[in-house]
Specification:
alpha+beta
């Protein structure tokens, strides 16, 4: 991938925030080159809301997304799989009795310093 021609993106993370801390986080994951490989939008007549029909790739993505619920202290609350991206809300809830076994997750801005 030629990264020289990509637009410069502004940081979307809160500077100095530890994203491994308890909280709810809204996440968007896009397919490479925004390829429409995850689902198709069907229906949506005059009175009907459209629905999402997952492709085989979308079904695999959904299976792995939901398997995240098997990770201690992590759960997916809501998600939607669109043709070229996935939105989901992930909850991080540490058990204070277990201590912290993982290092804090620095923001991308912090990693560059």
């Amino acid at each position: 991938m030629d990264t020289q021609h990509l637009p410069t993106r502004k940081p979307t993370r809160l500077q100095g925030h530890d994203y491994s801390e308890n909280g709810a986080y809204f996440v968007t994951v896009c397919t490479e080159n925004r390829q429409k490989i995850l689902s198709t939008v069907v229906g949506g007549g005059a009175l009907d809301a459209p629905t999402i029909q997952l492709t085989n790739v979308g079904k695999i993505a959904e299976r792995y997304l939901l398997s995240t619920n098997n990770i201690e202290s992590v759960s997916i609350d809501r998600y939607v799989i669109m043709p070229d991206h996935i939105h989901f809300i992930v909850f991080i809830k540490k058990n204070p009795d277990n201590g912290t076994s993982k290092a804090p997750s620095p923001t991308m801005f912090q990693q560059k310093r």
